[in-house]
Structures are given as structure tokens and as C-alpha cells.
Design a protein that fits this description.
single chain; mainly alpha; 9 helices; about 0% strand
């Protein structure tokens, strides 16, 4: 569809932009309750994601000692979560606000609604897919690091983030075309389903291997009374375990956030979209949840980031000292 034709929809089709498959239909009261509730929650999550991830990014950027492969991947994940809270979530909220409006206003703002929905679809698919890929790479990096076979450097980690970002663009553009054509996009859904399923399987396998390595080395330490067989001090082993436990929290949030959406995409091949729209909005809420929870986990579990954010806040918000008498 050409740019000139983007505003040529018939007036009766205005509300069709509010549905998943581009079909105008009367919705049940349960649908409006669910979509309104999820939209309100997402509106609260958005500033939390922006503020939290901005602080995390600033803390990593300011500290030269955090320029490691693990933190580079973490930086990429925080940047993706920031963009989700800054672009994807507000776009979704704007679409829902217009869809709750009177028909006359929807007709008047139909072009705005179209472009806003397209922006939300593009950014939501792009940043959501990039989040999945980065979390998977983080798990693989931990596994390779524990086996002492890691080939990742800071530069290579930057390449991974950059290449992953570029490779996703054709897939997302292909999905964006379905928004303008008002089609369901089964092919793009299939690509997303395969990508998400592959990452959901690869990530726990990597961590399972990590814990097997840790368990085996602990058994060797207990059997020999030292940590020499592990090839490094016991303190480092504890540090690695702490890092892995931290990423397991990320993994838990990852599954809670993305598994409902994976189920939705899988069901979309079997059922009509009109039967899944309520579940779609619920799964979308969980999808956006990770962007707000992840930075809270960083601040809770990573002392370097917590101290960096604390120093940054003290610099930005200096507390006046009492004048000595």
C-alpha cells in the first residue's frame, strides 16, 4: 500500500485498526475491562522502565571497570528495555486510548492511529525479539566462561549486539507491512514463534550446563580439600555462582514475561484472532513487565551497578551538609 493511500480507509473501517486481524467487530464487556486494565498497568510500568534502565545504563557507561563482555551484553539488554519503555509502551497506550474513544474522534485521527499502531508493532516486535536474543547470548556466555572456552571479548560482544540488531530489521519490516495491509501476518508470527521457542529452549540448557560444572567442581573441592583442581580460588567460584544466580532471576522474569506470548502465537495458528484478543492483551502486559523488573534486579543483585547508581544519584541530587557551629 502506498503512502498516498494510507489515509484512504473507509470510515467504517476506523475501528478495524483496533483489532489484531484488521476486522471491525463488536467487542464484549470483558474485552474492554481487560484491555483497559492492562493499559493502565502498562502506563505505570513505562516510566519505571525508562527511569530504571536509564540509571543502569549511566552506571555502566561511567565505570570503566564494567567494560567486560558480560556487562556489554547487559548494557545492550538495558538499552533494549529502555527503548521498550520509551517507545513501545507509550505507542501501545496511545492506540488503546484512541480505540476507547468515540467513533467520530477515531475517524478524525485515523491516520495518526495507523502510524502509531505501526510504530508500536515495529518497536514492540523489534525490541522484544532483541531482548530474547540478548538473554540467550548472556546464558551462552556464562556457560562458555565457566568452561574456560569463552572467545568473547568486549569488541566481539559489541559485534554480537550490533549484528543481532541489524538482522532483526528485515523480519520486523516484513511484519510491519501486515499492519498497513490489515492482514494477520501468519508468516511473521511463525518466524517469531520459532525464534522465541529456540531461545526458550537454548537458555535453560546453557544454565543447566553451568550448574553441572559448578556442582562438579564443588565435589572436587570437597574431595581434595582445596580448589586447585578447579584452577582458580574458591572466592572466584563463589563469584561465578553469584553471577549465575543473578542471571537466573533474569531468566525467571524472562519465562514469566515471554511464555504467555509464545502460547498466544502458538494458539494463533489454530484459533481465530477474535477468540484470542483478550489473551493477547494479557500476554502483552507480561511481555512489557520484564522491561520494568529487569533494572530492579540489576540494582538488587549487582553491587557494582548499585554503587554506580548510588554515586550518580548523589552527584545529581547532592544532599546539603549541616553547617558546623
Amino acid at each position: 500500500m502506498s503512502i498516498q493511500n494510507l489515509s484512504d480507509y473507509s470510515p467504517d473501517s476506523s475501528y478495524s485498526l483496533c483489532s489484531l486481524d484488521g476486522v471491525k467487530r463488536n467487542q464484549s464487556s470483558a474485552y474492554y475491562v481487560v484491555t483497559l486494565s492492562t493499559s493502565v498497568i502498562i502506563a505505570f510500568l513505562s516510566p519505571v522502565a525508562v527511569a530504571g534502565n536509564s540509571l543502569v545504563l549511566a552506571a555502566i557507561w561511567r565505570d570503566q571497570s564494567l567494560r567486560t563482555p558480560s556487562y556489554i551484553l547487559l548494557f545492550g539488554l538495558a538499552l533494549t528495555d529502555l527503548c521498550t519503555g520509551l517507545i513501545s509502551q507509550p505507542s501501545h497506550i496511545a492506540v488503546r486510548v484512541l480505540c476507547f474513544s468515540e467513533l467520530q474522534l477515531v475517524k478524525k485521527e485515523e491516520t495518526f492511529l495507523l502510524y502509531t499502531k505501526a510504530l508500536g508493532e515495529f518497536c514492540g516486535t523489534y525490541f522484544g525479539s532483541l531482548t530474547v536474543i540478548l538473554i540467550t547470548f548472556m546464558s551462552i556466555e556464562r556457560w562458555l566462561h565457566m568452561t574456560r572456552r569463552s572467545l568473547l571479548s568486549v569488541r566481539r560482544s559489541c559485534y554480537i549486539v550490533a549484528v543481532s540488531s541489524l538482522l532483526l530489521i528485515p523480519v520486523v519490516v516484513f511484519r510491519l507491512l501486515h499492519v498497513f495491509q490489515k492482514t494477520t501476518g501468519l508468516v511473521s508470527n511463525l518466524i517469531m514463534f520459532i525464534l522465541l521457542l529456540l531461545c526458550l529452549v537454548t537458555t535453560p540448557i546453557s544454565y543447566f550446563k553451568v550448574f553441572r560444572i559448578i556442582h562438579r567442581h564443588q565435589e572436587q573441592i570437597r574431595a581434595n580439600g582445596s580448589s586447585q583442581n578447579f584452577g582458580q580460588p574458591a572466592f572466584n567460584l563463589a563469584k561465578y555462582k553469584k553471577t549465575v544466580v543473578f542471571i537466573l532471576y533474569i531468566l525467571g522474569v524472562f519465562y514469566i514475561s515471554f511464555l504467555p506470548f509464545l502460547v498466544f502465537v502458538g494458539l494463533s495458528f489454530r484459533y481465530q484472532y477474535c477468540e484470542l484478543e483478550i489473551f493477547f492483551h494479557i500476554s502483552l502486559l507480561f511481555l512489557f513487565l520484564s522491561s520494568s523488573i529487569n533494572p530492579l534486579i540489576y540494582l538488587w543483585r549487582i553491587s557494582d551497578i548499585r554503587n554506580g547508581v548510588k554515586q550518580l544519584l548523589e552527584k545529581l541530587l547532592p544532599v546539603s551538609q549541616p553547617v558546623a557551629s
